[in-house]
Amino acid sequence: MKTRTLWRTLAVAAALAAGGAGASHAQGQFPSQPIRIVVPAPPGGGTDLMARIVGNAMTANAKWIVVVDNKPGGNGIIGIDAVVRAKPDGYTLGMAPSGAMSILPEMAKTLAPFDVLKDLVPVATVAEQPVVLVVPAASHIKSVADLVKAHKATPLTLGTAGAGSAGHLVGEMFGKIVGTPFLVVPYKGSAPALQDVVGGQTECMFAVPPGALPLIAGGRLRALAVTSSKRLPLLPDVPTMAEAGYKNVVASEWKVLVAPAGTPPAVVSRIATEVQKALAQPDVIARIISDGSLPLSNTPQQTAEFVKAEYARWSQVVKDSGLNKTN
Fold it and tell me: What's the pLDDT at 21?
């Protein structure tokens, strides 16, 4: 009887040990299925591009299967909500733009069915794209100092890609800093807004690089400054706003990889490591720079701190501009 009890005890212990080893092995084998990166925007845009750059690099480096799933609509609400509602196992991620993470929450807080700070886990920052302050090539304004002088004399018209766009909010912030608000002219997108700056219908614009760079290179727009903390490699002769005397006008449209709240920290760390590895590769860096962006690599903890700071900053800009008055 004692012998049978002993064997039974040993068998149970062996089974438990095997189960523990199997669980440990399974966790070590993450991922065991394809990873989906949800993009809350249509294919072809900056957020989509960053998701594909990072996804392709992870596939090449770690031999993971990474697929991009575009879910546009609702100014990003539909795509971000899909990530929030996904199972928190690391197999559904989101490539979230700054607008969805730091501007939309204050502008549409009665519409968004989630709280980005509570319902999402920041995994890694990916890239930042500053805006470029431009005027028509024929304008008499040749520097930021010229623009401020002219603007204080007679408020200038500021073209924007739409209410709440990065360029709009930077313009609102800059107007407050110089003490004179711009006459904001919203358009349905960056392209028509830029065309009216080229034609002189509006006098200036804080524009995203993909649309502005060809017009600058073609001599149709003049770039006065960029809002990044350092000069853009594609515009090496254009100063930063800080260099032009406005150190607080440092702003970028950034992309951050997020996961549903509750995703295991070990899985978040594993994914973040692969993202950081990708962002250190010369070919990935070159591809990001060619889009007018700059790589932005942070750990999960640094990313969380970054998102919180940007959330607080841009929520205040939205409040100051009155864009949240209907919410």
Answer: 39
Entry field: residues in the chain:
327
Prediction pTM value: 0.80
pLDDT in tens, 187-204: 888 889 999 999 999 999
Condensed to tens digits (0 to 9), the pLDDT of residues 280-322 reads 999 999 999 998 888 999 999 999 999 999 999 988 888 887 8
Residue 74, classified by CB atoms within 10 Å of its CB into exposed (0-12), middle (13-18) or buried (19+), is middle
Q: Which residues pair with 252 in a beta bridge?
A: 130
Amino acid at 22: G
Between helix 166-178 and helix 144-153 the angle, nearest 10°, is: 70
Q: Which amino acid is at 45?
A: G
**Residue in 106, 38, 99 with CA at minimum distance from that of residue 66:** 38
Q: 193-232: string of b/e by CB count within 10 Å (b at 16+)?
A: bbbbbbeeebbbbbbbbbbbbebbeeebbbbbbbbbeebb
Q: How confident is the model at residue 210 (pLDDT cuts 50, 70, 90)?
A: confident
Three-state DSSP state, 297: coil
Alpha-carbon distance values, 56 to 92, 279, 293, 299 (Å):
16, 12, 18, 20
Phi, psi of 259 (to 5 degrees): -135, 160
